[in-house]
Structure formats: C-alpha cells, structure tokens
Design brief:
- The complex is a heterodimer.
- Chain A has a six-stranded antiparallel β-sheet with strand order 1-2-3-4-6-5, covered by helices on one side.
- Chain A is of the alpha+beta class.
- In chain A, strand 1 and strand 2 form a beta hairpin.
- About 5% of the residues of chain A have low confidence.
- Chain A is globular, with a radius of gyration of 20 Å.
- The longest helix of chain A has 17 residues.
- In chain A, helix 2 crosses helix 7.
- Chain B is α+β, with helices and mostly antiparallel strands.
- Among the domains of chain B are: about 120 residues, Ubiquitin-like (UB roll) (Roll), CATH 3.10.20; about 110 residues, Ubiquitin-like (UB roll) (Roll), CATH 3.10.20.
- In chain B, the strands form three sheets. Chain B has a five-stranded mixed β-sheet.
- The chains are: A alpha+beta, B alpha+beta.
- At the A-B interface, strand 5 of A face helix 5 of B.
- Chain A: Keywords: Autophagy, Protein transport, Transferase, Transport, Ubl conjugation pathway.
- Chain A: One of its GO terms (molecular function) is Atg12 conjugating enzyme activity.
- Chain A: InterPro entries: Atg3/Atg10.
- Chain A: This is Ubiquitin-like-conjugating enzyme ATG10.
Chain lengths: ~210, ~325
C-alpha cells in the first residue's frame, strides 16, 4: 500500500481506475484513523462498474418546510417553564457526497444529494441556498447553461442527483498540481480542495496531521 | 463493400427518421377518464419528448382535472415505466417498444405481424405526481438544455481529448445546436429538425475526416429484464479507440500508424465482443444478441468511428441498444 501511494500518477492530469480506487481507499483509511472529523460517515462502495467514495455530512440549518410544525410545538409548550431554556431544535440537512471516476473525463466527479430529516430530495434552489457558501454563489451560477452544478442521474443508483461539472477538472489540476510529484492520494486531496469547497465539502484539517 | 453510401446520406436518413406517436392523457388526470382523444404526431427520432409538452398541455387543457398544472410538470410513461426525458425519443423507442428492428435480411413484405399493432407508439402523458426517479424540468427549459449541452461536451471531450471545442463555441452556436434537434416550439417556430444548422455548428466541433477521433463516443444499453424490480437502465461506457492493432488473421484493410505498427479500424463487433463477451461470443456474427441503432440492426463489421460520424444523435453520441435474439 505504501509503495502504491508513493507512486506518481501515470496519466496526470487524469486518473486511471486503479489509481482512483487506491486513492479512495487511502482517504477512507486516513479518515477512520483520524479523530473528530466533521463528516458523519465515509464509506468505500464497491460496485460492478467501479468503486466510489461516499461522504455523509449533516448540517444544521433552519428548514422552511418544518418551521410551522416547530411553532406549533412551541406554543403547546408555552406553559412549561423549562421550555424557555431549551434550545429550539435545529432540523438537520443530510448531504450525501459521492466521489466517482468519470468514464468520459477520467477525473473524479462529485455527485451529491440532500435530504431534510424525514423529507424527500430537494431542488437546485435549495442547493444554492443551503449548500453553496455565499461567496461562491454568483461565480457558480454564471457558468454554462444553468451554472456549475447540474442535475443528472447518479451513475450507480440511476436516481436524480446533483453534480459538479467535471469538464474543466483536468485543466485545473494541471495548473495547480505538480506532475513530477503528485501521487493518486495527493491528487484526490487536491481535487477535493478544488471542487469540494464550493459545495461545502471541506478536507478535514485532521487528515494532514 | 457494395453500395458504399456516403456518411452524409446516412446522416440525412437518421435526421429524417420519424416515429408515429399516440399520446393519451393519464386517465386518472382526465375529467373524461379514458375517453379523452389521443394526440397523434409523427415526431423526429432524434428529438426529445419534453419539447412536445406545451402542445400537449394546450391540447388536453379542457380535460385536466387539475387546471393549475403547467406544461413543465409533464412527464411521459410507457406501460408503467416513466421515460427518462434526457434520452432522444428514438432511443427510448428502441429500448422499450419491443418491436423487432429493421434488418437487411428481413424482406420488406415479410414484416413481423406485431409491427402493425405496436405502431403508433402509445405513450401516456401526466401533468401531476412527478415520479421520484426522474429529474424535474423547469419552466424555462434550462434543465433540458443543460442536460443536452453536458452530453455534447462529453462527446466532444472523448473525440478530441479536451473540452476546448465546446467551451469556445459561441452562445448562439451552443443554443443553435440545441434548437436544431427540436421540432418547432413557441420560441423557435419551424416545422422540423434542422440538419443544416446542426451540420454547420457540429463541423466546428468535429475533427476533420483526415484526423481520427481520440475516442469514439458510444454508449451501449443492455437488454432490460422483463421482470426486473426497477426500471433502471444498464449502460456500458468505456474509452473506445477508433483503431486497434491489426490481428494477423485480418490483414486486409490495414492502416499504418505513425509509429509504424499496423492498425485496423475498430468495428462494432470488436467493441461488443470485448466489452460484453458473454452476449457477443463472436466479433463477426451476432449469435445471442444484436446491436440496434435508430431502429435498425447495425452491421458487426461497421467501423465505430464511421458509425458515429454518420449516425450519432444530436448530442454526438451513438446509443446502441443490445437486443436479445429469438
């Protein structure tokens, strides 16, 4: 494993299937050994058409969908003196990020889906409101037909999912990573830093410890 | 090769290809239940179903139980299966309709008896209860346009190895490509798909004939299992080079590569045999299954780059459907 991880990327700025799988395994291992990561789960999924890495994250945001129910609950508890000191429960939004290797572009591609607790999948407006950090919204919305985030079908589940356009990834990787020193493991971390931040997926500091 | 037809004439035939559709309103959404008149249209195979929605919404407006539904709430179903709108209707037909594809060997007067009863293709349109397994449409048609352009980009990247071509396309040409594959809409009134505009714009993207593709954009759709729980499609995609090293058995039709070793064009048969050896034990003869494109069986000996140059859908991809024989 150590020998594999120190080998350089053979097709930089692209990744081969086996390099991608090794890098995913490596990242999953590092997360398991690191403590206090903000991700609630990271899992390596092995499917007939390739490996993928699923990172699950929960974000506490006020949900407009559940707001009326919360108000009702509060008014019922008005007479309970302890209710005043109890913090209002924040419903959590679950984001499932899946990292796959694009069979077309030969680079990692980030698919994601979001769900409120007890609620179905949400739309692109919700993505910009709850997932994309404010400083990236304008920039992301201005690319392509409808922005840097598209809706499509998840390659594994065939269910509707969002994805970040992978068509510029190879050029971007070529301009920031050094072909003479980049390994599949460091490629994946650099890529995650490049693509993840615009959809609120940050590389945990603990991984570099 | 006898009767060598030009790539252009095949492309014209593909773009002229039409399917008779008979579209009925879902009986649960109709005030007359199943007594609503059907909408009949001869529709280009390379076009996409949602482009029909404004006409269908207007046609069925007096029958709708829910008068507030909008045209972009519309989705299509065939025998209980919600149809993925981002695939051209010709591909959906080849996948689901179950009609025997046309082939060179089948005599014209010897058509299978069920062909007459399976056409027109009967679809059901809904304007309520959007199925959870379909990507939602939007009022401005941006989601559909975006899906098409993403597909165009992928094909372009495979052909050239970069996405620079499509990125450098002007906004007019980029939307021109999308308009070309649509029959008239409210925004682009016209009577048919527009091959000439399409050719002008796609010539900017396509490598010259003298310059081979880097990879050939082909997706292969596996046969659907009749009693499968989910309607999800199994699609095979792999980087496909237009030429492969010549085997000693096939010394004819060899090309010389720059490095001096001999190459031969990669054929449909060699791709299917390599990717799906169980379904295609031979690279020359279909034994268990046959490849179908635009409603016709394509020859195993056809070079894949020629297939894509002549017979790709409007997004630049050849979508080959694998049909079991017998």
């Amino acid at each position: 494993m150590a020998a594999f991880c120190s080998a350089l990327c053979s097709a930089f700025p692209f990744l081969t299937q086996s390099e991608f799988e090794g890098a995913c395994q490596d990242l999953a291992d590092r997360c398991t050994s690191a403590q206090h990561i903000e991700w609630s789960a990271i899992r390596l999924l092995t499917k007939p058409n390739g490996t993928s890495l699923r990172i699950t994250k929960r974000v506490d945001v006020p949900s407009p969908l559940e707001a009326p129910a919360l108000d009702l609950e509060e008014s019922q508890e008005d007479e309970d003196p302890e209710a005043l000191v109890r913090a209002k429960p924040q419903p959590s939004l679950q984001i499932d990020y899946d990292i796959l290797l694009s069979p077309t572009y030969q680079v990692p591609v980030l698919y994601f889906g979001l769900r409120w607790h007890n609620h179905g999948p949400l739309g692109l407006d919700d993505v910009y409101q709850y997932v994309v950090p404010e400083q990236y919204r304008q920039q992301l919305k201005s690319v392509g037909v409808m922005g840097g985030i598209s809706m499509g079908y998840h390659p594994d589940s065939d269910a509707p999912a969002f994805f970040v356009h992978p068509c510029n990834t190879a050029d971007a990787m070529a301009s920031i990573a050094d072909a003479q020193s980049v390994t599949p493991g460091s490629y994946l971390l650099i890529w995650l830093g490049l693509v993840g931040h615009c959809v609120n997926l940050h590389v945990p500091r603990e991984l570099f410890a | 090769m006898e009767n060598r037809v030009s790539l252009g004439s095949i492309q014209k035939a593909v773009w002229d290809g039409r399917l008779p559709l008979e579209i009925v309103l879902a009986s649960s959404e109709s005030r007359t239940f199943d007594k609503t008149d059907p909408y009949l249209i001869s529709y280009p195979r390379i076009s996409y179903l949602p482009s029909l929605l404004p006409k269908l919404r207007a046609f069925f407006s007096n029958f709708l139980i829910d008068p507030n539904s909008q045209s972009h709430d519309g989705w299509f179903e065939f025998e209980g299966v919600p149809l993925k709108w981002h695939y051209p209707v010709g591909l959906l037909f080849d996948l689901y309709a179950g009609i025997d594809p046309a082939s060179k060997t089948a005599a014209r007067d010897n058509e299978s008896p069920d062909e007459g009863s399976s056409l027109p293709w009967r679809l059901v349109v809904h304007f309520n209860d959007w199925p959870h397994d379909l990507v939602r449409l939007d009022a401005d048609g941006m989601v559909m346009n975006d899906a098409f352009i993403n597909s165009v980009k992928e094909a372009d990247f495979l052909r050239n190895g970069t996405a620079k071509g499509i990125m450098s396309l002007s906004k007019e040409d980029s939307s021109g490509l999308w308009n070309a594959v649509q029959e008239g809409t409210i925004l682009t009134p016209k009577n048919t798909v527009d091959l000439l505009s399409f050719q002008r714009i796609s010539n900017i993207l396509l490598p010259q004939l003298s310059q081979p593709f880097r990879n050939v954009p082909i997706r292969i759709f596996l046969p659907l299992l009749p009693d499968a729980e989910s309607s999800s499609l199994k699609v095979v995609q792999s980087p496909l080079s237009p030429s492969i090293p010549a085997s000693s058995m096939q010394s004819s039709q060899m090309l010389s590569s720059r490095s001096g070793s001999t190459l031969q064009p990669q054929t449909v048969g060699s791709v299917l045999h390599t990717l799906l050896p169980n379904l295609f034990p031979s690279r020359r003869t279909p034994v268990l299954a046959k490849p179908v494109l635009h409603g016709a069986v394509i020859p195993m000996s056809a070079p894949i780059e020629e297939v894509v140059r002549s017979s790709a859908y409007g997004d630049g991809w050849a979508y080959i459907v694998v049909r079991m024989m017998g």
